[in-house]
Each structure stands twice: as C-alpha cells, then as structure tokens.
Amino acid sequence: MIRFEHVSKRYDGGQDALTDLSFELPEGDFAFLTGHSGAGKSTLLKLVMLMERPTRGQVIVNHQNLTQMRSGQIPYLRRHIGVVFQNHQLLFDRTVYDNVALPLIISGFQPRDVGRRVRAALDKVGLLDKEKKNPIALSGGEQQRVGIARAVVNKPPLLLADEPTGNLDPELSEEIMGLFQQFNDVGVTVLIASHDIALITRLQRRVFGLAKGRLVHDGVLRRQAHMA
Ligand code: ADP
Ligand code: ADP
C-alpha cells in the first residue's frame, strides 16, 4: 500500500527531514510511526499525501508512483486517503453532520448518498446522536471521533493519523486507537504517527521508529523496550 525506496527529503533552507528511507507497509497492515519531535514523522505522512515531494527516491502509494504524479491527479489520490489530525481541524461554524459530509460534497456525491454515508460513518464512531450539534459543544474525545468519521466517510483504503491522541488522556487515547483497529479489521490500511510509547507498546503492532530522519527500528516493540 505504501512503499518508500531510498527516500530523502531536504526542505528549502537545507534542513534534512528524511535520509535514505526505505520501508514497505503492505495493504491491510496497521503500523505506528514513532520518534522524537523533529524525527521526520509529519514529513513522511506529507510525502504519502503529496503535500510535499521527495528530494530523492520513490514513493509508491496504492500502486501509484507519486514521483511521476502530476498536480492535477493529486485530488484523486487524496480521495483514497483518510487523514486524522491531532487538532481535529473541524469547522466550528457548522454541525457535526456538515463537517463529516464535507469530503463527500467535495467529491460530488448525490445528497441521498451523502446522508447515508455520513450516518454510517457517525454510527461507526458512536456519534449518531450528535449529528445536529456544533462540534464546539463536544468533548475533546468526541471531537476527535468526528475527525475520524470525516476521514473515513469516503471509505478510503488508507488511513493516516498524525498524533491523533496528542491532546487526550490515556483512557480516551485507548478508545481512539480501538476505533482505528476497527477500521483495520475491515481491511483499511492504517499508519499512525505517535510519540506515546506507552500506548504503542501496549498495542503490540508493527512500529517504524525514526530518529533524525532515518529508520532506526522496524517491528513490534517489546514491552518496556526503549526507542533509540
Ligand atoms: P516530526 O513530525 O517527527 O516532529 P517533522 O517531519 O515535522 O518531524 O520535521 C522533521 C525536520 O524537518 C525537522 O528538523 C523540522 O524542523 C524540519 N521541517 C519540517 N517541516 C519543514 C518545513 N516546511 N521547512 C523546513 N524545515 C522543515
Ligand atoms: P455503501 O454506500 O457502499 O453501501 P455504507 O456506508 O452503507 O456503504 O457501508 C457499507 C459497509 O462498508 C458497512 O458495513 C461498513 O462497515 C463498511 N465501511 C464503511 N466505511 C468503511 C471504511 N472506511 N473502510 C472499510 N469499510 C467501511
């Protein structure tokens, strides 16, 4: 689903964010991406979404080589990728329903299909009863679940998350991870950037460890193990 071949990313200004990075995340997998602040996690996710382009190497997503992709094809790529952010990026001038509907409206779905899909997505995150509320009236955990519903409403085969539990307490963080696992159980490939080592270690999933833009770990973290 995602393959990096000798990928390096140097930002304008000379900052090396990723150096000679190679890894593969097969379809249907669930993995974490971890490392200290500045290790390159966000940059890696941005390369997958084509929000940035690599300086060297190849990025292949969903059988497409992004290096060769023209700008005009980017919206099509993004339609197949759901993204969850730490700060939800919800719009507070409209309802929960309208927030979740937005990606479908942008994709040109018929109103009839929008309603059905939005309710299916809200149902999956347990928020069907909140559709008419303004997200500002919801708790942090609920807001994050709205963000997840919005990310999956298009039924993307790939779900990316950047510190999705960054602002949540441990109990809510577990709950949010449980939701990602549910989507993975129905076949969605999941990649989550997180520096919450305690949480990641408990879940016993594949972990890519980054340090200063290099891959320093690939595999399940043993309990109480420490990252380099
Ligand atoms: P992480 O998500 O692990 O905190 P990032 O991918 O955000 O790491 O950052 C990796 C490195 O790239 C850092 O040194 C950061 O300062 C640098 N960086 C990130 N974005 C930019 C940018 N737009 N321009 C210049 N340097 C950047
Ligand atoms: P459709 O419009 O294809 O009939 P629905 O929204 O009614 O889709 O959901 C059909 C099924 O697809 C549901 O049982 C649901 O579990 C599954 N589904 C919904 N969203 C996703 C997703 N993001 N990834 C995988 N399966 C999903």
Automatic annotation (TrEMBL):
Chief place of localization: membrane
Subcellular location: Cell inner membrane; Cell membrane
Signal peptide range in chain numbering: none
Pfam family, one: ABC_tran
Keyword annotations: ATP-binding, Cell cycle, Cell division, Cell membrane, Membrane, Nucleotide-binding
Top-rank taxon, per record: Bacteria
InterPro entries: AAA+_ATPase, ABC_transporter-like_ATP-bd, ABC_transporter-like_CS, ABC_transpr_LolD-like, Cell_div_FtsE, P-loop_NTPase
Entry-linked SMART domains: AAA
Domain ABC transporter: 2-227
Keyword Disulfide bond: no
A single GO cellular-component term on record: plasma membrane
Gene Ontology BP terms: cell division
A molecular-function term among this protein's GO annotations: transmembrane transporter activity
Membrane-spanning ranges: none
Membrane topology (UniProt): Peripheral membrane protein
Subunit-level organization: Homodimer. Forms a membrane-associated complex with FtsX.
Family that this chain belongs to: Belongs to the ABC transporter superfamily.
Task performed by this protein: Part of the ABC transporter FtsEX involved in cellular division. Important for assembly or stability of the septal ring.
Protein name: Cell division ATP-binding protein FtsE
Species of provenance: Marinibactrum halimedae
Gene: ftsE
